């Protein structure tokens, strides 16, 4: 099968996001100018550079009360900071709950029953029990093609790692089974890990 996106695919559901998988989930916490915390998952997320460490996430769609975008991007525009919380399999239901179309000002930490902690380098809350948190300073927001598509880039200014996730001096993902997004309503988690040496090593 071949299709051009502008012509449509003719299938019951869009296959694009099922093709680009698995995708890590950036559980983004931010704070509005009224002091309200927000927490929402984004599966267009990844790390993009080592030195300095940098991450990105993309927001698609908009809420009527957020000037052409969603709560996360609107808050980050105002504050210039955000935190990426890593999602473990055990937190899948809480993560899913925070993806809802809640009203502006709704506190997803409270709604999902999640403990929060204050970040160290930025004025923002983080998911206290997450396997890891990346505190970020906004570097740029890029408006992408299409309606309400925004790419948010940030430099990591602080890193939290849960102690039980560190084994033999390494951050070990097998200790918490990171959750990833597949297509449609499907998810997966990492349970098996293997290593490959690069040529010449």
UniProtKB/TrEMBL annotation:
It holds the Pfam family Flavin_Reduct. Coiled coil: none annotated. It comes from the Bacteria. GO terms for molecular function: FMN binding; oxidoreductase activity, acting on the CH-NH group of donors, NAD or NADP as acceptor. SMART domains: Flavin_Reduct. Residues 18-173 form the Flavin reductase like domain. This is Nitric-oxide synthase bacterial. It comes from Profundibacterium mesophilum KAUST100406-0324.
